[in-house]
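Supplementary Text 2. Reproducibility record for the structural model of the 251-residue chain.

All settings were left at their defaults, and a single model was retained for analysis rather than an ensemble. We include the record here because the model underlies the residue-level annotations in Supplementary Table 4.
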Amino acid sequence: MKKDELEFYENVGDWDFSMIKCEEEILTEWDFYKKIEENTNEKSLCLDLGCGGGEKVLKNYPKVGMVIATDFSPEMVKTANENLKSYPEKRAKFLEMDNLKMTFPNGMFDLVSARHTIIDCYQIRECLKDGGVLVVRGVDKDDCLELKKIFGRGQGMYDKIAISDLDYANMREAGYSEIEKVEILVNEYYQTEADLMALLLKTPILEKQKENGEMEMPPIEKELFDEYVKKFKTKKGILLKRKYYGIIAKK
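Retained model, structure tokens:
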């Protein structure tokens, strides 16, 4: 992982969005944790990549034999292990690991899951058992596009190839079978400006590429933020159009 990305997540320290008041309007029926449940049982050994502070794993991961959840940020892993204390029944273990430098034995896992994180599908395939499944939910190029246009920057905004297309192509090249890719559309309505701002401060949605190619998170310009709020404030709240992708692939 890049040093600037690590510093960003170290500063965030957790991935808990529970205090942000937001209502979702699901436009695409594709649920990440439901797909995991459909491809596991109570004996499955699973690997979850990019777990952050572990909140999603602890609250939403289905009952399996064990889920080993990893993150490249020591602060995130520290938070996850603290959160685990509140879930004594959860069969989970949190480890520090870089997704691009995986060290697990070949053929170890029944399922690997990755939510909103960078992956190397070749390394993942190596650590999957024969017939094992990879489930991915990612942030696509046009996520929050209206917001990014106002700020003139944003995560993946200027990528020549969308991450979803790149992941799909890499999986085909790596030899996965039965690859299914789905576009996931969600409308999010934030109750207040403070709720939307809290999201932007905890995520790299508005990151900016520096001249040396590294990414940074500059301060969020209030005048541009106010312009977006004025344009997208509705009776339901402040609208943020999300565009994700889901992929299921079998070894």
